[in-house]
Each structure stands twice: as structure tokens, then as C-alpha cells.
């Protein structure tokens, strides 16, 4: 089913949220999924995952201010700012509790949202998390990203390049500074909800040791690897990633 697009204005900034209905008559209501993109990206590379998860529950896909079409904010927005905007926008749509799913820099956004609004985050799914604390330089990240490009499918690379061009170099670089500075490894230690870390088995950006460290640092964390897949694993192996997320959601659901 096609998603419904709504634009929510928060503090003069626009967030575009696409909502895809879940199953028609589930036996018991399930909390929604909220999907959040990474640096330079939009909802588009999350569309395959969105479609898979919509078989289980309602899915909201967020485009944050400055990403995709439309004007760029005149002010600098850090990870904390984006998280606060997202929490408020979801609240305006009536989303009070959800499974928050982020990819790459989107991991930072959903982690910070969970810290700012613990009631919103029933659980977190961190796909291809950045930035590895042992590889926290722009050069190291650029080399890893270039390496990953050679492992991605043509369709994934087309989406990534198209979104990068649309977002633009200036906004990308402004956001890059925030991404590099965010201490994800310390943030996950403060989480109060279950955490699932997901990585592609051939992801050179989010490496195994780093992902295992995050899962271990989280008070209630687990790691899943999708064998043979690169960084944009939610696009290349959407069905497998969705199955892991749904299983995690059901495994950590509180009794009604």
C-alpha cells in the first residue's frame, strides 16, 4: 500500500513523514515502526524495508529538515536538535510509543530521541551504526564509504547518489561535523530500552568489533549480522532485516 505523506512544521522547520498502514485487522494492536535515514539520504533507501515491515504494523518514515527537496535550514542542526524535532513531530501525529529504526547516522538520531523521550522508544534498531570510535576521522570514513560503494547493488548506488545530489554538498558537510562528534558508544550506555544492532556481514563502515561493542555497552543489547551484505543492508536484504526486526519486536514486547 502506498504511504500517506504529511509535512509537520516544528519551530519553523519541516519534517516529511510518510505513513504506511499496517495489516487490516491484527489480532492485537502493535506499536508502529519509525524509520530514520542517515547522512545525505532520504526515505527512499528505506522503502524496501518499509514495505516489508508494513506487513506487521504501521510504518512511519521520516525525512528530517534539510534532507531531500525543499530549502535547507539557515541554522546548524546537531544530532540533538534533529532528535528533538522528530520527537515533537511524531507527537503531533499521535505517535507516543514505537520501535525506532535508524540507519548509519540515523542510528544517532534515534538513539538521541530515545534518550530525550524514553517513553517514545519501546526498543531501538541500529542498522550500520556510525561512527566507530577507533575510526573517527573523515578520511577513514570516506575510504570505508568508497570501499562500500563497490559492494553495493546498482540500485542502491543510484538512490544514494541521487539523494546526495539533492541534499547538496553544503548541508552534507554541515551535518558531517555533527555525525563525527556524536559519542554513540556513550549514548547507548544510557538507554533504558532493548537494543538490536544490525550490520551487513561485508559492511566496511560499521565493522563487526564496533557493532559488537555497541551491543555489549547497551544495558539490553544484541547483535545480528546479515551474511554477505554491505552497508545499505536494509535495501539489499530488506526481507531478512525486516524478519530480524519483527522477531526482536515480538521477543521484547511487554505483556498486554
Q: Any idea what the shape is?
A: globular
State the helicity in percent bands.
40-55%
Task: Output the radius of gyration.
Answer: 17 Å
How would you state the average pLDDT, rounded? 94
What would CATH call the class?
Alpha Beta
> Largest sheet at a glance?
8 strands, mixed
How much of the sequence is in beta strands?
Answer: 15-25%
Structural class: alpha/beta
Low-confidence blocks of residues: none
Distance between the termini: 28 Å
Q: What is the H/E order?
A: EEEHEHEHEHHHHEHEHH
Label the CATH architecture. 3-Layer(aba) Sandwich
User: Count of helices?
Assistant: 10
Strand order of the largest sheet: 1-2-4-3-5-6-7-8
Which helices and strands, and how do they pair?
Layout: E1 4-10, E2 13-20, E3 33-36, H1 47-53, E4 59-63, H2 79-92, E5 98-103, H3 105-116, E6 121-127, H4 138-149, H5 154-167, H6 169-181, H7 184-187, E7 195-200, H8 208-217, E8 221-226, H9 233-236, H10 238-251
Parallel strand pairs: 3-4, 3-5, 5-6, 6-7, 7-8
Antiparallel strand pairs: 1-2, 2-4
Describe the protein's architecture and organization.
The protein has helices at about 45-55, 80-90, 105-115, 140-150, 155-165, 170-180, 185, 210-215, 235, 240-250, and strands at about 5-10, 15-20, 35, 60-65, 100-105, 120-125, 195-200, 220-225. With about 260 residues, the protein is an alpha/beta fold. The protein has a single domain (about 5-250), classed as Alpha/Beta hydrolase fold, catalytic domain (Rossmann fold, 3-Layer(aba) Sandwich), CATH 3.40.50. The chain has an eight-stranded mixed beta sheet with strand order 1-2-4-3-5-6-7-8, with helices on both faces.
Amino acid at each position: 500500500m502506498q504511504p500517506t505523506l504529511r509535512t509537520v512544521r516544528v519551530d519553523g522547520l519541516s519534517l516529511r513523514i510518510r505513513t504506511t498502514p499496517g495489516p487490516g485487522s491484527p489480532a492485537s494492536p502493535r506499536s508502529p515502526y519509525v524509520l530514520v535515514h542517515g547522512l545525505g539520504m532520504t526515505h527512499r533507501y528505506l522503502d524496501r524495508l518499509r514495505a516489508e515491515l508494513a506487513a506487521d504494523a504501521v510504518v512511519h518514515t521520516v525525512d528530517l529538515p534539510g534532507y531531500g527537496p525543499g530549502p535547507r535550514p539557515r541554522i546548524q542542526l546537531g544530532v540533538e536538535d534533529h532528535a528533538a524535532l522528530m520527537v515533537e513531530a511524531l507527537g503531533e501525529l499521535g505517535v507516543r510509543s514505537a520501535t525506532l529504526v535508524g540507519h548509519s547516522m540515523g542510528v544517532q538520531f534515534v538513539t538521541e530521541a530515545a534518550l530525550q523521550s524514553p517513553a517514545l522508544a519501546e526498543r531501538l534498531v541500529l542498522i550500520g551504526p556510525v561512527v566507530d570510535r577507533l575510526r573517527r576521522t573523515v578520511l577513514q570514513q570516506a575510504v570505508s564509504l568508497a570501499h562500500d560503494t563497490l559492494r553495493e547493488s546498482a540500485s542502491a548506488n543510484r538512490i544514494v547518489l541521487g539523494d546526495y545530489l539533492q541534499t547538496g554538498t553544503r548541508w552534507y558537510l554541515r551535518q558531517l561535523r555533527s555525525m563525527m562528534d556524536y559519542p554513540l558508544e556513550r549514548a547507548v550506555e544510557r538507554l533504558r530500552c532493548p537494543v538490536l544492532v544490525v550490520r551487513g556481514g561485508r559492511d566496511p563502515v560499521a565493522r563487526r568489533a564496533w557493532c559488537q561493542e555497541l551491543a555489549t555497552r547497551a544495558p539490553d543489547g544484541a547483535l545480528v549480522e546479515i551474511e554477505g551484505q554491505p552497508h545499505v543492508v536494509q535495501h539489499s536484504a530488506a526481507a531478512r532485516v525486516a524478519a530480524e526486526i519483527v522477531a526482536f519486536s515480538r521477543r521484547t514486547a511487554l505483556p498486554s
